[in-house]
């Protein structure tokens, strides 16, 4: 039995942290140990409320997480914060999950903050994040907040591994409404317009109205009760609206649990990630198995030098790869 | 021997048209016939100048193609126009390669226009377009113009199957420069600012200056001679600048041929598409082979119902799929 197993189940944050480092590693021996550990933890039955949180830089995501997370830990809940930062794949560094911007939460014994690892590709980020969520659930956290920035496909990836999706926006003029991609509107369960304080309070109110109107125009989704998705104002700096936002999240989660959507969504997500892993595993074979890699390189040279057409070479490779099926 | 083979090599447009219909088909017998035909045509040694052309709707792409294509056929060159329209995958219809907007070219015996097929996914569009290009080259066309609209990944796809990439833009204020995605700037060999006529002439001039400045700031690419990529004004309506644009394209193509970049690029592209076909073929197996499909569905249910973890089920599936390697 892995010596991290029991400490994780006991909620030991240092063991959790070491296990996440393990799932982030690409070393084969680390991967094998991580897989065995995850398998041993798989059927522990603990479920956190997994909340996806998206917002562009500058919208106040760290301040919101600090305020919202602290409110939850004050209620005795244990909160984990994970970050998915697709930009770190290119820049080699992450701006998300910055502990220095969440001072109180970072010191809170009921909170666990894990910044985004640097220099991994988005596919790897997805697997690492799913596995980190599973580890946090096994460690008994009540809420797992998965943060991402509003770029590329990362929202869709995060929405596919969380129970609720929250979009954090800044107050804006009505004409800027178009700036939010329609695809994100369609996955958002709750739109929070931050900075509803001081000079921006009126603008935030108008923005909430604009989004409420836009959401009403969208087709109701079967996994939503009346009135959802919903837009509302919050002020992360003043702490206003955070309790109401939490109430709405619980209302939605409870309704989905009662109506069977919670389990259905989790089942669908698990099946999706299984298929993704099969696809990724097949792709990995092309580069990981030495004989396959050599044959690919050889056929690639034949194609590049005009001795074979791409389609014919591909057929030859696929025939060589064909299994007992 | 396929009875389309000789007519295609003889440049028969009707045979070419029928062969493209064949490569667009998803019927297995059609696919097999298309593969055999392409293989038989593969080593004929004919090469066209493949030009990728991108521009958003409204920029005057059809008018440009009509004017530019007619200029080339007037010089005795044979010109084929193909369209890659990723939007047709969603809308089921295509706006590109519209023959009614290229009246002269559509009637020209030295031209061949093939609109985008409707309702195919982007992966299929890429394969179909590559195969259509190969057929046009075998049919002895001197220039193959591959049109696409400026959305999503289609430019990258087209740039990976062409020798030159031309970006057609409308005149705009300097602040709109940012609207062109950096990725497209990086693949463009020639930026043509259309509508350099009448009221917009001055604006077009300014836009050319803006882009020339932006291009100078970008790192020189090893496959470009001094001064490339380049921005210049054209008027598709008045026909001005088209001859100059063609001169620049030939200058660039000749330079790349002399310096070995032409062959190197084509080799790299062929190797890329070989790898793409292997990847696509592996993915197709998961859904096409009945036994594999059944096992995927069964394991998917196990995962969805919580009997197995996604990673463990994926490993089982991958083991079942493992070939002799």
TrEMBL record, chains A, B:
GO terms for molecular function: GTP binding; GTPase activity. Residues 306-325 are annotated as: Disordered. Keywords: Hydrolase. It comes from the Bacteria. GO terms for cellular component: cytoplasm. It is an enzyme of class 3 (hydrolase). It holds the Pfam family MeaB. Its EC number is 3.6.-.-. PANTHER family: METHYLMALONIC ACIDURIA TYPE A PROTEIN, MITOCHONDRIAL, METHYLMALONYL-COA MUTASE. This is Putative GTPase. It comes from Jannaschia aquimarina.
């Amino acid at each position: 039995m892995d010596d991290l197993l029991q400490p994780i189940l006991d909620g030991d944050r240092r063991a959790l942290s070491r296990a996440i480092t393990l799932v982030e590693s690409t070393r084969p021996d680390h991967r094998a140990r991580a897989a065995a550990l995850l398998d041993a933890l798989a059927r522990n039955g603990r479920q956190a409320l997994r909340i996806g949180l998206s917002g562009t830089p500058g919208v106040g995501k760290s301040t919101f997480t600090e305020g919202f997370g602290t409110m939850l830990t004050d209620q005795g809940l244990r909160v984990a914060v994970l970050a998915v930062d697709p930009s770190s794949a290119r820049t080699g560094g992450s701006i998300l999950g910055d502990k220095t911007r969440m001072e109180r939460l970072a010191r809170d014994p009921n909170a666990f903050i894990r910044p985004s690892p640097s220099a991994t590709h988005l596919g790897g980020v997805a697997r690492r994040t799913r596995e980190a969520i599973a580890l946090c659930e096994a460690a008994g956290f009540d809420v797992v907040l998965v943060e991402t920035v509003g770029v590329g496909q990362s929202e869709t990836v995060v929405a596919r591994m969380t129970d609720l999706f929250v979009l954090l926006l800044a107050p804006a003029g009505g004409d800027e409404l178009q700036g939010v991609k329609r695809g994100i509107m369609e996955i958002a369960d709750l739109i929070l317009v931050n900075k509803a304080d001081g000079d921006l309070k009126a603008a935030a109110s108008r923005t909430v109205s604009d989004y409420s109107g836009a959401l009403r125009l969208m087709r109701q989704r079967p996994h939503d009760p009346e009135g959802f998705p919903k837009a509302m104002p919050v002020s992360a700096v003043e702490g206003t609206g955070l309790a109401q936002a939490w109430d709405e999240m619980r209302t939605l989660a409870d309704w989905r649990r009662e109506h069977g959507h919670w389990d259905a969504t989790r089942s669908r997500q698990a099946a999706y990630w299984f298929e993704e892993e099969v696809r990724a595993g097949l792709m990995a074979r092309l580069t990981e198995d030495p004989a396959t890699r050599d044959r690919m390189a050889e056929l690639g040279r034949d194609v590049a030098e005009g001795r074979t057409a791409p389609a014919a070479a591909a057929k030859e490779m696929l025939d060589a790869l064909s299994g007992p099926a």
